Amino acid sequence: LFLIVLAIVWIIGAIIQDLKRREVDNLWNFSLITFALAYRFFVSVFINNYWFFINGLIGLIIFLVLGNIFYYSRLFAGGDAKLLIALGSILPLSYSWLLNLKIFGLFILLFLLGGSIYVFIWSLVLVVINWNKFGKEFTKQFKIYKNIFLIGLILFIIGIVASFIKFEFILISIFLLFPILFIYSKAVEESCMVKAISPRELTEGDWLYEDVYVREKKIEKSWHGVSKEELGLIRKKYRRKILVKYGVPFTPSFLIGFLGLLWLNRWGLV
After folding, report:
1. Per-residue pLDDT for 238 more than 80?
2. pTM score of the predicted model
3. Is the CB of residue 176 less than 8 Å from the CB of residue 156?
4. How many Cα atoms are found within 13 Å in the side-chain-facing hemisphere of 211?
5. In sequence order, what DSSP letters do the residues of 160-224 get, joined into one string?
6. Most distant CA pair in the chain, distance
7. CB half-sphere exposure, 149, CA atoms < 13 A
8. DSSP secondary structure code for residue 92 in this structure
9. Cβ(208)–Cβ(226) under 8 Å?
């Protein structure tokens, strides 16, 4: 129960930081690991069974691998990956590793599925707020990817019609929506998530929309974001507005996944 409460408090804290500053402090994520492992260690000493502590270490190692896979495949930003890694010290909630692996799998599934729905709803809000810009950008992206869009739409309609004959076709047709969703996401990204800011507003880790030239030095846009050294150089010597690309704050997905896991446990499904 202590580990569950600890995880919920830290996830909520990460969400507040993410919504406010679009970043989660490394210290905040790493402190969750420290508190979780310290608690596991003292409990293990008290009950004279060190598997409670060892399980936390194993979970941390497993999620360290998962976090790096998600980060380097560009599915997660750095703060999200570190929060996932930190939760690895929490989630081994059983002495049975078959059950722990089931918990891991369900958590990943729930937070990715719940996160996808949450991100889609967030994008719809952005579209409503930036409707005119989105409309122009969607038209532009449609012209670029028109053939892919039309093929995907035709195959989707065929799949829906075929599903009346055999239900399995409805599942196939859902995947054929991806070309349409791809154009939608590109339009949302270009019209709603790019902002011009002053060098003083730029923070470490921000994603540059395009390369920035500071006198003779080229600062390239990168998935890793602006480094501390690059940030100092830009703030000191760059005077024009900078285009920065912001992503959707993804930390609420962790809370969705964790609460979903608790709900499944409440009904005896975990």
Report:
1. yes
2. 0.79
3. yes
4. 7
5. HHHHTT-THHHHHHHHTTHHHHHHHHHHHHHHHSEEEE-GGG--TTPEESS-EEETTEEE---TT
6. 67
7. 16
8. -
9. yes
